[in-house]
Design a protein that fits this description.
- There is one protein chain.
- Strand 18 (about 190-195) and strand 19 form a beta hairpin.
- This protein has about 300 residues and is an all-beta fold.
- The strands form seven sheets. Strands 1-28-27-26 form a four-stranded antiparallel sheet, with no helix packed on it. A four-stranded antiparallel sheet has the order 2-3-4-5, with no helix packed on it. Strands 6-7-8-9 form a four-stranded antiparallel sheet, with no helix packed on it.
- The protein has strands spanning about 5-15, 20-25, 30-35, 40-45, 50-55, 60-65, 70-75, 80-85, 90-95, 100-105, 115-120, 125, 135-140, 145-150, 155-160, 165-170, 180, 190-195, 200-205, 210-215, 220-225, 230-235, 240-245, 250-255, 260-265, 275-280, 285-290, 290-300.
- One of its GO terms (biological process) is intracellular protein transport.
- It comes from Pristionchus fissidentatus.
- InterPro entries: Coatomer_complex_subunit (IPR050844), WD40/YVTN_repeat-like_dom_sf (IPR015943), WD40_PAC1 (IPR020472), WD40_repeat_CS (IPR019775), WD40_repeat_dom_sf (IPR036322), WD40_rpt (IPR001680).
- It is a peripheral membrane protein.
């Protein structure tokens, strides 16, 4: 008999629509990027608001901690990247990074690099040690680039998801994509790499499906069905054998990595589910909805 998944709600904060959440790697801090142009930082253990600040008058669709620099980096619909000290909230740097809405920021785990993607169909690599100089531009997608993920097993490689229905895999330093994964019937909104023993990449789409890809063999090994609306965010849990998916059907679903069986479905009645974030070394998961942020703790019984 399979172990039951026990889900405990830790924290709930109501707010404007949450477009992105991110955990601080070592402190109990949760960052939320809001559609109203604000960013909030919560201590999810004490359930206290640590900081809240206005970035701009347009949606902030992405925000990330850079713990080694004490930074928060934000990307918003005014096309700007902004860098703040997350303790003092001082604005350290800002620049117009793209020609359209910024969708995603990915921070390189070792190098002083940040990848950004936007509705201008391109991905850009920025070098903060070199006065935030544009180091490289990646072109190849035919529509908005919604999401980017760096491969945890090869930090020079990353994948991108686009409304052109494709996933592309790239190498930093190379101008063209290594290969393209095709199989979704609609826009691809999100993707994530597996840090386990298999060369897997997962993607979620407006076709309501989640696909699991073998990026070495470049084929789809399984398709998860069950969501009834667009799949907006996706994650492999770093400590438990789970795939977590968030959808505009207002649910968050938990699937077994090995059997692909649906283990649990959550609906907090907070509107559409927009983002899911896991934390390495922790069973805590953050979820963002139309009406707020939730953190949950997962246990296998």
């Amino acid at each position: 008999m399979a172990a039951q998944l026990n889900v405990q709600q830790q924290f709930l904060a109501r707010s404007d629509r949450v477009k992105n959440v991110d955990f601080h790697p070592s402190e109990p801090l949760l960052l939320a990027a809001l559609y109203n142009g604000n960013v909030t930082i919560w201590n999810y253990e004490t359930q206290k608001l640590v900081n809240s600040f206005k970035v701009c008058d347009l949606p902030v669709r992405t925000a990330k901690f850079v713990a080694r620099k004490d930074w928060i980096i934000t990307g918003s619909d005014d096309k700007f990247i902004r860098v703040y000290n997350y303790t003092t909230l001082d604005l350290i740097h800002e620049f117009e990074a793209h020609g359209d809405f910024i969708r995603c920021i990915a921070v390189h785990p070792e190098q002083p690099f940040v990848l950004t993607s936007a509705d201008d169909k391109v991905i850009k690599l920025w070098d903060w040690d070199n006065e935030w100089k544009l180091a490289q531009t990646f072109k190849g997608h035919a529509h908005y680039v919604m999401n980017i993920a760096i491969n945890p097993k090869d930090n020079n490689s990353f994948a991108s998801a686009s409304l052109d229905k494709t996933i592309k895999v790239w190498t930093i330093g190379s101008e063209t994509a290594n290969f393209t994964l095709e199989g979704h019937d609609n826009a691809v909104n999100c993707l994530a790499y597996y840090d386990g023993d298999k060369p897997y990449l997962i993607s979620g789409s407006d076709d309501h499906l989640v696909k699991i890809w073998d990026y070495e063999n470049k084929n789809c090994v399984h398709t998860l069905t069950g969501h009834t609306h667009n799949v907006s965010s996706i994650s492999f849990h770093p400590e438990l054998p789970l795939i977590i998916t968030a959808s505009e059907d207002s649910t968050v679903r938990f699937w077994n990595v090995d059997s692909y069986r649906l283990e649990s479905t959550l609906n907090y009645e907070l509107g559409l589910a927009w983002c899911v974030q896991t934390k390495k070394g922790s069973n805590t998961v953050a979820l963002g909805f139309d009406q707020g942020t939730v953190t949950i703790k997962l246990e296998k019984e």
